[in-house]
Amino acid sequence: MYVVESKGGAIACMLLALFFLGTWPAILTLLERRGRLPQHTYLDYTITNFLAAIIIALTFGEIGKSKHGMPNFITQLSQDNWPSVMFAMAGGIVLSLGNLSTQYAWAFVGLSVTEVITSSITVVIGTTLNYFLDDKINKAEILFPGAACFLIAVCLGSAVHSSNAADNKAKLKELSNNYKHGTRNVEISVLKETFPNNDKTKDLENGDKFSEKTKFGTADFLVELENRRAIKVFGKSILIGLGITFFAGFCFSLFSPAFNLATNDQWRTLKEGVPHLVVYTAFFYFSASCFAIAIILNITFLYHPVLNLPKSSIKAYLRDWNGRNWAFLAGLLCGFGNGLQFMGGQAAGYAAADAVQALPLVSTFWGILVFGEYRRSSRRTYILLASMLFMFVVAVAVLMASSGHRKT
């Protein structure tokens, strides 16, 4: 079994995990904005997410011979370690609920703000729990100021979304006035409730572009995006999006402490002489429960959709290949990202490993570059956005500086 033991190796795992975990949400957001049902996308994502855990367990978890107290993955599957297995599976369940919630929150709140708020809540609650579970191996005088910076980022993230929503409302109001006074000669439905049926809007695989005259951040862009996307958001309260976002953040804050308990057995639930779950075995059970919950809920949502999405079916899902390869890629990125986070956390402390919650820095980059978020917004929105990202950078740097070293 391959074990990350050095502090440098742990930080390398965290940085790679940071890129993976910050990229996969952008891919799922892209598919939703092109009109693909989130239930279809998430089912595809779930399959490869679990596949990544299996690959990690059968490679890193099987390298070399078993050691005393650190058995290989296959060896440990037959041991009497169910109390720890249950902790790992509980972590997978809350992660699955959090991921499922964010795919709807992205539509309402935007990729950047959703990731900032959920990640900050994860750090504020999860890091505090992990600090005490890890027997305080991280430096408290550095760790908790870093967590405070994340809390400030939560507040700034909410302010960014509120300001940007006001900007968009003003743009749409101006567009409506233009039509009312006859200054525009193109008729368009701002609150179009039906899904587009023409071939151009269904070209998900090749990434069809908006019309050449439509520029990022304009009112026409917002209207065209609304008509194309799977989840309709016009006319809905921003509190819906923020409520879903905060619920997702609470779920995310619990999965890492649960995984910590699974691998280190701080509550002494295992029988004497039974080895702790190695990180790869714990990650396998963690991902298995995540997979099961996602399959059950998304199949339910196919026939009983939420947020006024159209009904679907297993048959329709199996025939929907538009964008499937992107959804598969997102699942692999998330699976390997989570695995790397846990490998680094087992070496340097799970509280420090929460530095990967800086993933909004990556997500915001994709949000601005690919989706045109915050284009043509007000000066106030730009100032709040810059402040939010600055606090995030400071928080990540401080959190990584608190890294300790776990005694094996």
Short description:
The chain is an all-alpha fold and 408 residues long.
Low-confidence segments, given as residue ranges, are 184-212
End-to-end span in angstroms? 14 Å
| Share of helical residues | 55-70%
Biggest sheet, open or closed, and with what strands and sense?
Answer: none
Strand content: under 5%
What order do the SSEs take from the amino end to the carboxyl end, as H and E?
Answer: HHHHHHHHHHHHHH
In total, how many domains does the architecture comprise?
1
Shape: globular
Mean pLDDT figure = 81
Q: Tell me how many strands there are.
A: 0
Structural class from helices and strands? Answer: mainly alpha
Cα gyration radius (Å)? 22 Å
Number of helices, where a helix is a run of at least 4 consecutive DSSP H or I residues: 14
Keywords: ATP-binding, Membrane, Nucleotide-binding, Transmembrane, Transmembrane helix, Transport
Family: Belongs to the plant ureide permease (TC 2.A.7.19) family.
GO molecular function: allantoin:proton symporter activity; ATP binding; uracil:monoatomic cation symporter activity
InterPro entries: UPS_plant (IPR030189), Ureide_permease (IPR009834)
